[in-house]
Amino acid sequence: MSTPNTDLTVATTIAQQIGHRAFVMMGTRHKLGGENFLSFDIHGCRDYSKVQITLQRDDTYTVEFFKFRQWEKLRHKTVDSVYADGLKQCIEYNTGLCLSL
Predict the structure, then answer these.
(1) Rounded to two decimals, what is the model's pTM?
(2) H or E stretch including 13?
(3) Contacts by 1-10 with C-beta closer than 8 Å and gap 24+?
């Protein structure tokens, strides 16, 4: 049985734009990529535990923040029209985490 191949170019690009060090500082252990998104967990933030970044047609990103408890969504916030150079700042502002030294 063959598995479908997913093009992870966008997910890889998003991860590179955020930077490896930022993922370490967020305590990210799991990343999940798709054809037009990257989703990952974060630790150390009271309000949110997951982030999903989706590429839009106008070459901007939609950043979604989630808080789950036992498969139940407790909180959700969406930030639209974020440019690549503003991804880190958007995550820092909404989570309260510092992503650079």
Answers:
(1) 0.88
(2) helix 9-18
(3) 6/33, 6/34, 6/35, 7/35, 8/33, 8/34, 8/35, 10/34, 10/35, 10/36, 10/37, 10/38, 10/55
Angstrom distances, CA of residue 12 to CA of 6, 57, 69, 98, 101: 12, 17, 28, 22, 23
**Contact of 75 with 66, CB cutoff 8 Å:** yes
Beta-carbon neighbour count of residue 85 at 10 Å? Answer: 8
The Cβ of residue 59 has, within 10 Å, a number of other Cβ atoms equal to: 8
Residue ranges in the chain modelled with pLDDT below 70: 1-5
* 73-87 pLDDT tens trace: 788 999 999 999 999
CA distance linking residue 43 with residue 33, whole number of Å: 19
